[in-house]
Amino acid sequence: MNKKVLSERLKGNNKKQKNINYIMLCVKTYITIKND
After folding, report:
1. How far is residue 25's CA from residue 14's CA, in Å, rounded to a whole number?
2. pLDDT one-digit tens code per residue, 18-28
3. What are phi and psi of 2, to 5 degrees?
4. In sequence order, which residues have a C-beta less than 8 Å from that of residue 20 and are 6 or more positions away?
5. Dist CA 8 CA 35 (whole Å)
6. 17 with 9: CB under 8 angstroms?
7. CA angle, corner 14, sides to 8 and 19, nearest 5?
8. Is residue 10 very low, low, confident or very high in pLDDT (cuts 50, 70, 90)?
9. pTM over 0.70
10. pLDDT at 1 over 60
11. Torsion of CA 25, 31, 35, 36, to 10 degrees
């Protein structure tokens, strides 16, 4: 994902941003568990 798209999403609505943060956290957690 390019920075322009990302920054536009960050400017987007707060609920959407929290959703993205939640998904990122899930992905990081999944990767950590998988690598453990």
Report:
1. 16
2. 888 899 998 99
3. -80, 165
4. 9
5. 32
6. yes
7. 90
8. low
9. no
10. no
11. 30
> Which amino acid does the sequence have at 22?
Y
Residues 20, 9 contacting (CB under 8 angstroms): yes
Helix (H, G, I), strand (E, B) or coil at 36: coil
Query: What distance in Å separates the CA atoms of residue 21 and residue 14, rounded to the nearest whole number?
Result: 10
Q: What is the Cα–Cα distance from 14 to 20, expressed in whole angstroms?
A: 10
9-to-12, 23, 35 alpha-carbon distances in Å: 5, 14, 30
| Separation between Cα atoms, residue 36 and residue 20, nearest integer Å | 24
One-letter amino acid of 35: N
What is the Cα–Cα distance from 14 to 12, expressed in whole angstroms?
7
